[in-house]
Amino acid sequence: MRSSYDAVVVGSGHNALVASAYLARAGHSVLLLERLPAPGGATVSTRPFPGVDAHLSRYSYLVSLLPRKIVRDLDLDFRVRTRTVSSYTPTTRDGHPTGLLVGGGEARTRESFARLTGGDREYTAWRDFYALTAHVAARVFPTLTEPLPTKAELRHLVDDDTAWRTLFEEPLGKAVEARFADDLVRGVVLTDALIGTFADAHDPSLRQNRCFLYHVIGGGTGDWNVPVGGMGALTRALVGAARTAGAELRTGHEVTRIETDGHRAEVTYRTEDGEGTVGARHVLVGAAPRELAALTGDAPPPPAEGAQLKVNMLLKRLPGLRDPDVDPRDAFAGTFHIAEGYEALAAAHGQAAAGALPSAPPSEIYCHSLTDPTVLSQDLTDRGFHTLTLFGLHTPARLFTDATNDTARAALLAGTLAQLDEHLAEPIADCLATDTDGNPCIEAKTPLDLERDLRLPGGNIFHGDLSFPYADEQDPRGPGRWGVGTPHPNILLCGAGVLRGGGVSGIPGHNAAMAVLGQ
């Protein structure tokens, strides 16, 4: 290891790896320091169940926001596959199990809407609303890897007053209630505003709008795709790109302090052999803004808690459904919504805001192996095994403490699986595979677990509140062209906490590298 580098990158999440690869390819000397034994941060694949050859994307699992530009620029050997079904939402109407299937062609989706709602009104409203979001996606997504536009510039680019008002100015709940009449349809729309975000449909802060925006603009289409080989395939491709370009990657190196005079910085790190210090012209930090403040001694930004339950499962078979009109292979191929009607989401939010676990926890599931079976061994695939990934909503970090985390996790998991069982022909527990110790193949992570495992403050998967993708002079990240700033000119954020962060995108890493390169 040298004593000084052009850039030291702190952390090895996918954004930090993107920044390292861009800078090294530009001829900069780059050192990346990671405290964990392996790179990847939240974008890793692991074998969580002893003796079972299943590689699960443990923390993050789908790809929407990663631009093809980054894949091309860095020559990444990384592919995604589209899902044939967007979503399935089961319910009971007039005492009979039914549901809403979106995907598999326009005729099939229209028929599912008609079967659920008794006519074409809701389908027409759905089609019109998502035509509006598609228009915004096509205009906004390309700007995410360009210098920050002003608010006025982005509004001019969107060039649709209704779309701008709906997504950028008024609480999303207003548009949902005005456009849709059916409670289940309303809930399906709203869920994209609540993933990892604790907010009500009418939250005046528009936190829900910002979350929704990033969920519907990815790739300029809003599609959510499956990473072939799991999320670890992206990490492996980025590690290879960074190392091939000449970047040095050091794991087991925990950064403990960053000092700078604005021109040169010193980064202190700790290993099992002791402490060391390395100099740099620039420091790029993939950790959350609160973690960066602890390293520099600056005042921390306001806390922003996470609000999700993350569950990984391995099944020996897919469960049957109570809805006779839908094949489980279709239902689980897309996003399977559970307890996510509009009123149910509001009730769960109200209970959590009052300090209680939701009595009917909302969540959504998808099955990676239906689209990409390569995450399982051939033997497991031949035997009909499948993965299930569940993401729970409205479970804010405030509901978990060091003393209660284990019991709260168990209670929340039991309640969540009970909600799922209401729509299955057999209990999900009967479908779980077992590991070599005879234990069921299921693991759950609360926000507190994510804070411990990944140092995400409050378990927030976005490192803090998401932002609208335009320059905000009131935001300390905003000064400069790329939205990656900090109070120190030569220390930049390159993780999800930047102005256009959040999600599996690589965009923060790209933009931080562009800021260093003076683009």
Structural account:
The structure is a single chain. With 519 residues, the chain is of the alpha/beta class. The chain has two domains: 4-44 and 59-80 and 228-301 and 476-517, FAD/NAD(P)-binding domain, CATH 3.50.50.60; 84-223 and 305-454, Polyamine Oxidase, Chain A, domain 2. It has 18 helices and 18 strands. The strands form four sheets. Strands 1, 2, 9, 10, 11, 12 and 18 form a seven-stranded mixed sheet that branches. A seven-stranded mixed sheet has the order 7-6-14-15-16-13-17, with helices on both faces. α1 runs parallel beside α10 (231-245) and α1 (14-25) packs parallel to α18 (507-517). The radius of gyration is 23 Å and the shape is globular. The chain starts with a strand and ends with a helix. The model has no long low-confidence stretch (mean pLDDT 96).
Structure keywords:
7-stranded mixed beta sheet, globular, 519 residues, Polyamine Oxidase, Chain A, domain 2, 34% helix, single chain
Map the helices and strands:
Elements: E1 4-10, H1 14-25, E2 30-33, E3 45-46, E4 56-57, H2 68-73, E5 80-81, E6 85-93, E7 96-103, H3 106-117, H4 121-140, H5 151-158, H6 161-169, H7 172-179, H8 183-191, H9 207-216, E8 226-227, H10 231-245, E9 248-250, E10 254-260, E11 265-271, E12 274-285, H11 289-296, E13 309-315, H12 328-331, E14 335-338, H13 342-353, E15 363-366, H14 368-371, H15 378-382, E16 386-392, H16 405-421, E17 442-445, H17 447-454, E18 491-493, H18 507-517
Helix pairs in contact: 1-10, 1-18, 8-13
